[in-house]
Design brief:
Blueprint (H helix, E strand, L loop, with lengths): L5 E13 L8 E15 L2 E16 L3 E4 L20 E16 L4 E24 L5 E9 L2 E17 L4 E16 L4 E9 L13
Parallel strand pairs: 4-6
Antiparallel strand pairs: 1-2, 2-3, 3-5, 5-6, 6-7, 6-8, 7-10, 8-9
């Protein structure tokens, strides 16, 4: 590295195990990120970054939708309200680079390139329509296939500083670009099925082939 160059790195790592006991809704997740920074001179700096975030085995428990004029009954958290075939997961990642350059004492430039990807290998949600204090309702599951979203973007800017005895003025010129793609399909709905909230949902896995 050139004499006087400045290097620094910031990073982090996290894990998110979530256990809700017999009620269900457990999940496992982790995330990581790193940001290297290099400044070889007073007029040039390069910053890179990357991060990853994943969540797996997020068990879906029903969302209660009251159809009457009172709140739904209190649930027993010792009863499993999830199904092994109804869970969701996601994976996200982002990478980028930012370049700052002082071209002259008055003119500076900044360039940035960024990439983002989000993948949902599988997804699901459940809705229970229940009337008042009745402990039986209509349970519906919706399963969604794998989806993927990706974006590539960039930005460049020039800044010129005009100095005078009375005030300083900055003239800037910026250009941005974005390209995105997505892949997704339909959905499979099962229900509504009558379900007593005092027992685990006895529903077979739907055929999603």
């Amino acid at each position: 590295a050139p004499a006087g160059a400045d290097w620094s790195v910031a990073f982090g790592l996290g894990a998110r195990p979530d256990d809700n006991g017999p009620f269900g809704g457990d999940s496992r997740g982790w995330s990581a990120g790193i940001v290297p920074h290099w400044q070889p001179s007073d007029r040039l700096a390069v910053t890179l970054f990357a991060d990853w975030d994943q969540m797996h085995d997020e068990e879906v428990v029903p969302a209660y939708y009251p159809t009457g004029d009172t709140l739904p009954p209190r649930v027993d958290r010792d009863i499993d309200q999830s199904r092994p075939w109804a869970d969701w997961a996601y994976e996200t990642q982002n990478q980028g680079m930012i370049l700052d350059a002082g071209l002259t004492s008055r003119l500076s430039a900044r360039l940035g390139l960024f990439r983002s990807v989000q993948v949902l290998p599988h997804d699901a949600f459940a809705l229970l329509a229940i009337d008042g204090q009745r402990r039986v309702g209509d349970l519906t599951y919706v399963l969604l296939p794998a989806t993927r979203y990706a974006a590539l973007s960039g930005e460049g800017s020039l800044r010129y500083t005009l100095e005078s005895d009375r005030a300083d003025h900055v003239v800037s010129l910026t250009s941005r670009g974005l390209s995105s793609r997505s892949r997704k399909g339909g959905e499979v709905e099962t229900g509504p099925h009558p379900w007593s909230i005092d027992a685990p949902p006895a529903l077979p896995a739907p055929d999603i082939t």
